[in-house]
Structures are given as C-alpha cells and as structure tokens.
Amino acid sequence: MGARRVADLLGPGLVVLAWIGAPGCGSGGRVDTGSSGVTSGGETGTGGGSSGGGASSSTTGATGADASESGDAGSSGDTSGVAVGPPYVELTLLASQSDPALGAGQGVELRDGRIYAYGDRQGTGVIREYEVIAGDPPALEFSGLEVVLRRDGVDLIPHPTGLTWGPEGTFLGNTVAGVGTIFVIDWPQMLADGDLDVAVLAEVSDDVLSGGTRPERVRVGEVWRLASAGYLDADAGNTLRLFDAAALVGAGSTAEPGVLVATAPIGPWVQNLAYFESLDLLVAAQNLSYGSGWRISVAPLDAEGALGEVQVIEAGLPGGELEGIHPLGDGVHAVLITSGKVDNLWIAALEPLAP
Predict the structure, then answer these.
(1) CA–CA separation, 309 and 86 (whole Å)
(2) What's the average model confidence in pLDDT over 150-159?
(3) What is the pLDDT of residue 85?
C-alpha cells in the first residue's frame, strides 16, 4: 500500500482520549473513532513462521493475530467519560515488509544504529538484527544475525515481551500465561553466542502486579526508570508501573522493597511500551480487544510518573494484531511490528504537532 495519512482515513484518525478504560480518568468529551477494520484473534501460545530467510517488501495490509499473553479474553473496554487532551503527533503509515522467520512478532528495539525485532517462533523466542537502509521511506534488511532465546538447548524465553537497555544493563521480558519475568542480559555475549547459554546475568519475577511484563526505559522528570505494564482488559484495572532499574537488577522480584517506585492507571491490552526521547512522550502499542486490532496511545509523563492527557490513534489502521512500536532513530520515522506472518514490519512517519 502507498503512504496513508491517518487523519484522512475513515474520518478523524488522530483521536484524543484518555487511556481507554483506565480507572481514574476524568470526565470530558469523546471524539468518535470510527471503524478500525480489525480481525479477530486470540491466544495460541506459539507463533507462526519458520527459521531462516530475510525480510521482504510488501504492500498488502497487516494480517494475523498469532499470540497474546493474557489468560483472559474480553472486550476492548469502557470508552465513556474519558478526558480530552491535545494531539501530540501525526502518524503516517509508509510501507510494510514481511519477515516470516520472526514467527509471531512481539516487539522491536533500536540499538547501535540497528533494529532488533523479536518474536515467538512456534514456542521458541528469537531476536533478529536488521540494517536500516536509507530511502524514502527507509527499509529494513536482515543482517544475517539471529539469536535463539534458549539456554543449553531449552527454551528460556519462548514469548519475549519487551527489550530495552541503559547503564544498568539490558532487560528482556518474557510473558507466558500472564506471568512475567525480566531477564538481565549480557548483550555482547548474547550476540556473539547466538543464544543464552552464558548471557543471562539475572532473572527477576515481575510479580508486583499482574498481566505479565514489557520493560521499557523512560525518563521521569530528571531520572530514568524502567516502565512496564500488563496485558489486561479494562475491568482488571491495568497499571503502568515504574521501577528503579538499579534496584531491580539486584532483586529476585519486583515486589521487593525499593524496586517499585510509582504506578499510574493505563488502558487495556498493552502489548508494548516505547519512549520517544526526542518528543519526551510515552507510546503504548495496544490492541482493541484480546489478540486483535491496532491502538496507539501517546502521552507525556509528569515528574511523579503520572500520565498526562492522552492521544489515541486507532481509526483507519490495518487489521491484525499490533505488537510494538519504536523510534527508528532518525527523529522522523518509527518501526511497528505485528504478529502476522506477512506485513509484520511497518515503517511510519511520526511527526510532532505544534501545541
């Protein structure tokens, strides 16, 4: 498909709401989002695809809903009584690519100028490295480097959910049946070995709240925190949690004293979090319902870790199951990932709007 300006599709595509279904949302008006054109999906426990191969270009819409982390099915949540805030960004989908070797894609990260996409390939977690190819729009090219998330031949991280890094270390999440674990990884060792045989430095149970884990490093005021959230429906009261990363590295559980420093309400079905540092905005990749749909929520964090007014983008987006989003690193573009076998990697322009 060609470039699509979301604001031109199916009526207003840049919709300003609160985190949909989040407890504690203030009252206010609501902008009708229109139809999202999603397909249904749900938990299968394993991802599709086969090993080997590289990403190929495609112009068809994203499809598929191969994996989810929650043990509960439900609706997309209550959308009444939500607070209206300003739109922060304009999203334009530019191009899609297919890399079936990812299995069910789960997320994407930028490090050292390369993109690392990770997925659940039939019950085996994988991370694949891509070069960013300059162009209009940019494209991703598989570098040939793949990490299989096994230790001593046994699947250790079969369903990776969240990859981030900072001075405290590299953090890789795993969520199975709603139970989350954050692994602290020796990144160079893992890339050199292509597995986790000797690269795991620590394992931390993310059990302070429910719904699994999806770690992302974010700036909160003058300090950096490790954020996470659950894959839960609106009735479960999903929560953004902010951890002291240094304390977490030395802990066995996020429930230990000193690890959790703040919480805030967040909407349902959060698949992944991404901090856009150049915009100072937290972006959540969400589903509209269990295992299905695209919703992108954008909000600032205040100095205490609370979410500001939220922009929600959901109208006119492709079908399938959105899993993640991350800046491409050039200040203009973002990479999005889905769980489908085709059109599972998307390039978009994410441009700031004047206040």
Answers:
(1) 7
(2) 98
(3) 64
